[in-house]
Design a protein that fits this description.
Largest sheet: 5 strands, antiparallel
Oligomer: single chain
Distance between the termini: 84 Å
Radius of gyration: 27 Å
Helix content: 40-55%
Shape: elongated
Number of strands: 9
Structural class: alpha+beta
Order of helices and strands: HHHHHHHHEEHHEHHHHHEEHEEEEHHH
């Protein structure tokens, strides 16, 4: 087989050209110093091999060349004549997939251009991207890019909040506003999306005979760095740029973060430590919700198609999935949930089976903390608790009800009332009247 240097140069020439077989062959001929007849068919086979897929990495093209029978035969015949004539130095151009051609995102073709776009120097860019996971390997908290907080869920599982420090957060917000916000989401996605909310997530499921609720387990940390980098290559960014963008948006959690969690379940900590050790989407970074929605696009497409075939409606709010329908869907809902779980597994996600619920009209149909039976509504118990708190504030003073020590309890109450106003304005009017009586 050819030496690694020749394979690398040929792969780079294929990646440096527009997705056209003639131009790819011409670039290969330029690199080899001769227009070989086998280059055209090889270029066409390469395009076919990576069609409808994210822009390949150079190592993927090299593996294709190693395995291609036509190239192996050409090397057998002309190995003494094939050599590198010139090394290509120009940057790789943007090469988005067909669906991404119209996305209004900036063209960034080199690491230097990315550093300039983020207003960094190249050394700072490498440090923030941390592709070698030095922050994970070194026990130096001051040099890390995240603050960590371990929380215990009601289910007993562990949740890790990874809050980026100000400088990294600024870079992530730049990526969010400049790139991610310009990429369209699936219509079924309602979480972390302008103009959408849990109300729009629940509304399509009101008045249905049956509602199926499913939950994705470890939604954010289950999305790895390789998947994020593939998303940026899909958008058209060269491999080196996509890798750096993916590095800025992901994180590997250092082991010592879990040292002071003695009161938590050791099995849960062990599982969480293994999960968060690999580079993943950090829950707390401004880019993570948008990237999670984008990485779930194909899953949303498949689940929406499955729901349509079963006469059902599908929506998703972050890791909460909801399906609903009439009599036909009610008859097949148990089998449907199995098929939906299989799709999630194939797309790299896992179902939290304990949270799967099939809710018919005879029970309270809960979705994302709201009631969906006849109309989107606040659960009665939640409304009554808030009403009782406001009533006691009027009678005994606002400080008497601040049992959790909120620094601004009045603002806290007003925020809760505003939430009810978003869901059910008529009910909220009664709460607002009580709130205005508080001294």
């Amino acid at each position: 087989m050819p030496n690694p240097s020749l394979l690398s140069v040929l792969a780079r020439s294929f990646l440096s050209a527009a997705p056209d077989a003639r131009e790819i062959a011409a670039r290969g001929a330029h690199a080899l110093g001769r227009s070989w007849r086998w280059l055209g068919p090889l270029a066409r086979r390469c395009l076919e091999a990576f069609a409808r897929r994210p822009r390949p990495r150079r190592r993927d093209v090299i593996e294709f060349l190693r395995a291609d029978a036509g190239f192996r035969e050409a090397w057998r015949k002309y190995s003494t004549e094939i050599s590198v004539a010139r090394y290509l130095q120009e940057p790789q151009p943007m090469q988005p997939v067909a669906a991404a051609v119209s996305w209004p995102i900036p063209a960034i073709e080199t690491p230097g251009a990315l550093a300039a776009w983020l207003e960094l120097d190249p050394g700072e860019l490498d440090w923030f991207a941390d592709l070698k996971s030095l922050g994970y390997k070194r026990n130096q908290p001051r040099l890390r890019h995240y603050h960590y907080k371990v929380l215990l869920k009601q289910s007993g599982a562990v949740r890790l909040i990874e809050a980026p420090k100000p400088r990294l957060k600024q870079l992530q917000r730049r990526i969010l506003a400049g790139i991610l916000d310009s990429i369209p989401l699936h219509p079924a996605a309602h979480g972390f999306r302008r103009g959408h909310s849990i109300k729009t997530f629940v509304a399509p499921h009101t008045g249905q005979r049956v509602v199926l609720r499913m939950d994705v387990r470890n939604f954010f940390p289950s999305i790895g760095r390789a998947r994020i980098q593939a998303l940026f290559r899909t958008a058209g960014y060269p491999e080196t740029v996509a890798d750096l963008l993916g590095g800025i948006c992901t994180n590997a959690t250092p082991r010592d973060v879990w040292k002071h969690t003695g009161s938590l379940d050791p099995n849960g900590i062990r599982e969480a430590r293994a999960l968060y050790a690999a580079p993943h989407l950090p829950q707390g970074a401004p880019t993570s919700p948008a990237l999670a929605n984008l990485c779930a696009y194909r899953m949303d497409c498949r689940l929406a198609g499955l729901a349509h075939s079963a006469g059902a409606v599908y929506t998703r709010y972050a890791d909460d999935l909801a399906f609903s329908g009439g009599r036909d869907f009610e008859r097949s809902v148990a089998r449907f949930s199995t098929l939906a779980a299989a799709i999630l597994d194939e797309e790299g996600f896992a179902v939290h089976h304990r949270k799967t619920r099939i809710m018919r009209q005879g029970v309270c149909q809960h979705l994302a903390g709201l009631v969906a039976n006849q109309r989107v509504n606040i659960p009665r118990a939640d409304f009554d608790r808030l009403k009782a708190t406001l009533t006691n504030c009027v009678r005994f003073g606002i400080d008497s009800q601040n049992r959790d020590g909120h620094p601004s309890f009045r603002a806290h109450l007003e925020g809760r009332i505003a939430f009810v106003e978003m869901i059910h304005a008529a009910k909220a009017a009664r709460l607002r009247a009580l709130f205005e009586q508080i001294l």
